[in-house]
Each structure stands twice: as C-alpha cells, then as structure tokens.
C-alpha cells in the first residue's frame, strides 16, 4: 500500500497532533522529501518526537524509513503526472481526441490506485464467505446501486443465490428473513448513506455476515462490516459524476468474480456456458 493510501486509511486512528502532521504532508507533497523532522515539527507547531512517533505509528522504524517509502511513492506519482490529463482541464472547446485520452487516462489511474489499496487477504476471505453463504443480499444506492446490480448478475451467472433489491421497504422486509448462514453485501462509496446504514445495523443485530465496499476513509458502514473492501476517495469535482467510485467499485467486483471462477473452474464454466447458450437462443442470426 502506498504512503498516501496509508495516510488516508489511518485518519481515524490519528491523534489531534498526528492529524495535523498528516494534513501538512498531504498538503505539501512536493516539499516533504526536502524536509527533516525539525522543519516539519516547526510547520505543524509540534515536537520532533511527535513526528518520529507519527512515522512509527504508520509502521516505519523512524522518519528516515518513512521518507524512503514516501520518495518511492512520489516517483510513481510523478511518472503518472508527466501526461497532464486531469479532469479539471476539460473545458468547452477541447478537441474530442484530447477528451477521449483524458477519460482513458483517468480511468486507468483509478484502477492503479485501487490496486494499491487492495488487501489480498480480504479478497480471499470475501470469496470464502460468499461461497459458504446460503443466500446473498446485495444493497447499494445511486451509482453504487448500479454496481450492486452488476454484482448480482455476476454471482447468479456462477450459480450463487444472490439478489439485489432497490426499494428500501422491500430491503427491510428481506433482511428480516435472513439468518446467520446468509450474507449482506453492501456497496456504498461514502459508507454514510443513512438508509443503507440502517439496513446494515439491522443485519448486525441478526448476526448476518456483512461484506462492504466503501471508501478507504473511516466510515460507519465499514466499521460494522466483517470485511471492508476499500475504494479510492472520490474527487470533489462535479464533472466526475461518481467516476472514481464507480470504476473502483467495479474493479473490486470483477476481482471477486474472477477469484470465484478460479476457485471452481469446471463448475463456473458449466454455469457460464449454460447461460451463454440460453442467451444465444434468443438472439437474431
């Protein structure tokens, strides 16, 4: 996991002083490599010891090791930024070819950023939990609901009893029928959508297993989940229309889908083959 991803992930674990140090680092990425603990402490109005403790809390032996990892991270980011295709640059009058390149560039970066924060162990545990569950209820609202429905299609294609319900009252009714052998799979970028959170609380009361896909930052839905898979943080840009979260969520769903296939290739090939044959019978020659 990259240093910046770690900083974002650990926000809920930092003390007030540590949050101030973290914010300064994130706001001054281009300066940190040229600063020592004394200079950072001065800027953050804290002590050198606090900066060292901050580095150790992040899993490093000290600030020098933190800077080495940070330098590698910055090198990767600079390589990405050599092509300055960012969403904020899209303006009326841009050539279509430039716009196409920018969208493709942003999407590829989202996938790479998602990869940098994925926990292989959590993917393995999620696949095991899905395979061992009797029924899987999938929920999500807005753009997350689109990804939730895609997950339903993929799981059903593999012969797994999964269902997606978008109506809140039907969701409440359905959760009341689930038991400990079942699974609630939640997709919510913010991890704070009230209706979804209330459904997760109901599931928790019934000891229903919960897997969630939420942003990497600390959030209430993620905290209630048995397994919390992380997506990249959404950019504050109206043009994105949930682009970051949607691509990131879909990447995780695809990873789970392929992982399930590799667990039992013969059975997966049978279910997928049967589905393709049925669908082909309804297509025009």
Helix and strand content put the structural class at alpha/beta
Return the string of H and E elements.
Answer: HHHHHHHEHEHEHEHEHH
Number of domains: 2
Biggest pleated-sheet summary: 5 strands, parallel
The percentage of residues in β strands lies in 5-15%
Q: According to CATH, what is the topology of the largest domain?
A: Rossmann fold
Count of beta strands:
5
- The average pLDDT is 83
Separate helix tally: 13
Our measurement of the CA-to-CA distance between the termini, rounded to an integer number of angstroms, reads 49 Å
What is the fourth-level CATH superfamily of the largest domain?
Answer: Glucose-6-phosphate isomerase like protein, domain 1
Give the overall shape.
globular
Q: Which spans have pLDDT < 50 for at least 5 consecutive residues? A: 79-88
- Gyration radius, in Å: 22 Å
Query: Quick one: CATH class of the largest domain?
Result: Alpha Beta
What would CATH call the architecture of the largest domain? 3-Layer(aba) Sandwich
- What is the strand arrangement across the widest sheet? 2-1-3-4-5
Assembly state: single chain
Task: Give the % helix.
Answer: 55-70%
């Amino acid at each position: 996991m990259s240093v910046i991803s770690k900083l974002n992930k650990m926000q809920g674990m930092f003390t007030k002083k540590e949050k101030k140090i973290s914010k300064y680092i994130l706001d001054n990425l281009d300066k940190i490599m040229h600063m020592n603990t004394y200079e950072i402490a001065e800027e953050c109005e804290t002590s050198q010891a606090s900066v060292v403790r901050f580095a150790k809390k992040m899993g490093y032996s000290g600030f020098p090791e933190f800077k080495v990892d940070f330098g590698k991270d910055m090198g990767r980011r600079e390589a990405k930024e050599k092509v300055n295709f960012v969403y904020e640059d899209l303006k009326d009058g841009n050539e279509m070819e430039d716009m196409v390149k920018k969208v493709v560039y942003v999407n590829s970066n989202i996938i790479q950023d998602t990869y940098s924060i994925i926990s292989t162990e959590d993917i393995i545990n999620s696949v095991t939990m899905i395979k061992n569950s009797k029924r899987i209820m999938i929920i999500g609202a807005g753009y997350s609901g689109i990804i939730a429905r895609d997950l339903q299609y993929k799981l059903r294609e593999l012969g797994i009893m999964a269902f997606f319900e978008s109506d809140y009252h039907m969701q409440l009714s359905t959760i009341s029928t689930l038991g400990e052998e079942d699974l609630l799979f939640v997709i919510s970028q913010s991890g704070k959508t009230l209706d979804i959170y209330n459904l997760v609380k109901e599931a928790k009361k019934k000891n229903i297993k919960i897997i969630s896909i939420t942003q990497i930052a600390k959030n209430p839905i993620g905290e209630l989940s048995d397994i919390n898979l992380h997506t990249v943080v959404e950019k504050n840009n109206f043009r994105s229309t949930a682009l970051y979260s949607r691509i990131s969520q879909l990447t995780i769903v695809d990873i789970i889908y392929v992982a399930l296939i590799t667990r039992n290739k013969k059975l997966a090939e049978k279910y997928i083959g049967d589905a393709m044959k049925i669908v082909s019978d309804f297509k025009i020659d």
